[in-house]
Design brief:
single chain
Length: about 240
Amino acid sequence: MLTKDWWRRAATTTALIATAVLPASSSTAIADPAPHPAPAAHTRPVGTAVDAGPLKLPEPPPVGVVRTELAGLHVAPPHSMNGYSRAKFPHWIKQHGECDTREVVLARDGEDVKQDEKCRAISGTWFSEYDAKVLTQAKQLDIDHVVPLANAWRSGADQWTTPERRTFANDLVHSQLIAVSAPSNRQKGDKSPDKWAPPRHAYWCTYARAWTDVKHVYHLNVTEPEKVKLREMLDTCEL
């Protein structure tokens, strides 16, 4: 289970997310007020209303910071999958109005995205970072959890509460959610980097930084092969 200090930090970040995703003129609260993750270091700037333009995909920390984070991760064998269910990571929650987490990410990660009155993306263009595919229909995309839910379970999330897992599954602050082609997401499944890495090698640096930072933020374990592969992927980063 995450620390009490984590929850104090999460309460602060919840307020920041509300500011980021609600229109400036609205006083409507997020429908599912789950605490959101922190620490806030290395997160994207907040305070941009949705009607002022789409938010940007959070940039993971620089490679030097991430190498330090990786060195500090606890190495342990995977936990049992007994009791696992995706339902224990409730998603996608409503973020504002009719917009759930999936629709917020689709609007954020695409170009010229237009939404209907239910917040569903009806047009736009998306570049899938994993395989360099250009997509023009929302149904062609999945929202990938960079650290998959099942991997998180095996890495320590089996000890979390449901609200903690809901926070993880809907994290818009850290580099945990990204819109990618459905085939690449399904090929990845719940695999760790030693078993699957993006076919587009140009994205390895960002992917390894994002994966490592998410595990650091949530105090999740890594396996030894996973750690070795992450080091290899970080070696592709330009200094």
